[in-house]
Amino acid sequence: MKRVYNFSAGPSVLPESVLKQAQEELICYHDTGMSVMEMSHRSKDYEKIIGEAEELLRELMEIPSNYKVLFLQGGASSQFAMVPLNLFRGSKKADFVNTGMWSKKAIQEAKRYGEIRVVASSEDQTFNYIPELNSADFDKEADYFHITTNNTIYGTKFTDLPDTGDVPLVADMSSNILSEPYDVSKFGIIYAGAQKNMGPAGLTVVIIREDLIGHAMDITPTMFNYKIHAENDSMYNTPPTYSIYIAKLVFQWIKDQGGIKIIAQKNYEKANLLYQYLDQSALFKGTVVPKDRSLMNIPFVLPTEELNATFIKKAAERGFVNLKGHRSVGGMRASIYNAMPVEGVQALVDFMSEFEKEHTK
Length: 361
Ligand SMILES: *Cc1c(COP(=O)(O)O)cnc(C)c1O
Known about the structure:
This protein has 361 residues and is of the alpha/beta class. It has helices at residues 16-25, 44-61, 75-87, 101-110, 226-231, 241-257, 260-280, 305-317, 342-358; strands at 5-6, 67-72, 93-98, 115-121, 144-148, 150-151, 156-157, 169-172, 189-193, 204-209, 285-286, 297-301, 320-321, 332-335. It has a 7-stranded mixed sheet with strand order 2-10-9-8-5-3-4.
């Protein structure tokens, strides 16, 4: 069967060359005579895989040496609890920007352990913009300041990072990590589930400044303590070995493409193709305020629910799948992560244009 153009928000498209390499190595990895899935995580061969994964990620993101990279499980959703459990070490207060459902879930969870203040929210407009932030409003005593850099469901992105001074900035970067350059030194913690831009589900990457490790609350479960994982090089227990292996192949693929700067150029090009079409279309409409538009997730609507449904159905018949928007926004959403080729976006735009002609006679 022919591969489709998969616009899924996550788990999402992976580079075809990565899948092919995984296929070639599936049964016998190099000269080990076994699959990576069957390997002890303590073996020399596996140590090399996880070591290279970390090295590649450090190189791609230019992660400073005073940051640890952790390969964990539990998804970004576990970080909603793990962050407060480890960072509430002083005032037990934290500032949050509420930019959507994932922010809300992070707020909900952190509230169990401390005092949460929402400094700004875009809930009044179904989260179709990033609220204005003024650092004078930030709590200087807060133990951390939390943002969601890219809002997967609504298609918004922080273009400017808030200046939080000495308060560690914590970012849920699940849906735009590795999509464009970020200065890691501006963050206390970056966390991301792998299944959007790094690999298969099951792996959660945490990049944490070393001084933030070792202050976990007494009630913190062992598996939720960053110190345990940092001291054991992500091998306190069995890590998600196969997901880490695939992520390593994806990191290598990004490097082979020329690194994050080149990937970012391709991402701008892809997003522009779609936004430019939406901006001139008489039928389709983007839902996000232009200045806050995401590079990764692009929601759009047609004038009626009926047309939305027709479009989604017809698109699927032509091999453009998973375009249905999140139930809280409706309409359509095209997720165009790193692994979506520009041809896929161009083909989608061509199809939308054809659909528009047919429905505006
Ligand atoms: C997908 C997503 C999550 C949830 O990730 P899980 O790994 O399923 O827990 C959290 N935050 C953002 C921004 C996401 O896109």
